[in-house]
Amino acid sequence: MFKPSTYSCCCWCSVPSVRDHPSAIVHHLTYIPYHEDRDEMVPLNSIQNSGSGTENEPFIVYRNPRMIGKENKHLRFVCMSDTHNDIDKIHIPHGDVFIHCGDAVNHRTSSRDIVRFNDFVGQLSHKYKIFISGNHCVCLNPKRPDKSQKLLTNMIYLQDQLIDIEGVGIYGSPWRPKRGCFYRAEAFGYDSKHIREDKWSKIPDGIDFLLTHVPPYSIRDYNSSTEEQLGCPDLLDEIVTRIRPRIHLFGHMHSCYGASSYKSEDNRILEGDQFQTDSNDILFVNLAIHQGMSYAKSTVIDYYY
């Protein structure tokens, strides 16, 4: 729907700047981003998503709203991202599926610390453990995901791959628009002009969970130092016009931790000809745990399907 001219590029920019691209309207469920005006938030009115994402009050999400109030199978997902060598300092509730959306380590010591991370995850009680890379995981070879999987023996490593967990479809992709050559933590950076065609267009529709490291443009992607939204516009477009996952999990932008709900009826301009009145809401969650001198909490989701 939108062409590569969405971007203006400079080799020293933190990411290619986005111009003239529609922003998504979302309803914040937890932690309204500090740069947004609380008076401008649209009140949430939805029975498809409930809860606060905590161990005692998990987000409750249904694959289909017609399932509400009926007997359904469900799995508990315990999710996080951007732990940067401090995962052992974080309380990790028990659940069925553990998900980590990248930057488990710091780039300077990633080769050593990814081994420690793998050992720690191996001690968790969750039946399934899933990991995608982040920009700090420079020790993982983008061209050899098989080698990354051999290194990460205690979890399922996803790189542009769809898996089925007891009937729940989960797709993971670690890519993000490439930043300027000044930056060293640059694993899985990709040419912004080709990332949609080469990466995002390969994501299948009809999935339950989408895992990426980068956020979609305008959804919990604000960078306070540059005062820009640094999510990927092509990822946003693919998600809302075609993929339509029930849940999109990501990290990367530490200052925008929290959850938001997307509703099609509020985004007709963004969805254009693809707008459908019967579309399910999408739960977007920025899982970035590391908050400088403090840590956010794991996000817990009970998924009924």
From TrEMBL:
UniProt cross-references to InterPro entries, sorted A to Z: Calcineurin-like_PHP, Metallo-depent_PP-like, UPF0046_metallophosphoest
Source organism superkingdom: Eukaryota
Pfam families cross-referenced by the UniProt entry: Metallophos
GO terms of molecular function: hydrolase activity
Signal peptide as annotated in the record: none
Transmembrane portions of the chain: none
Coiled-coil stretches noted in the UniProt entry, renumbered to this chain: none
Calcineurin-like phosphoesterase domain boundaries: 76-255
Similarity-based family: Belongs to the UPF0046 family.
PANTHER family (UniProt xref): CALCINEURIN-LIKE PHOSPHOESTERASE DOMAIN-CONTAINING PROTEIN (PTHR12905:SF0), METALLOPHOSPHOESTERASE (PTHR12905)
Protein name: Calcineurin-like phosphoesterase domain-containing protein
Lineage of source species: Eukaryota, Metazoa, Spiralia, Gnathifera, Rotifera
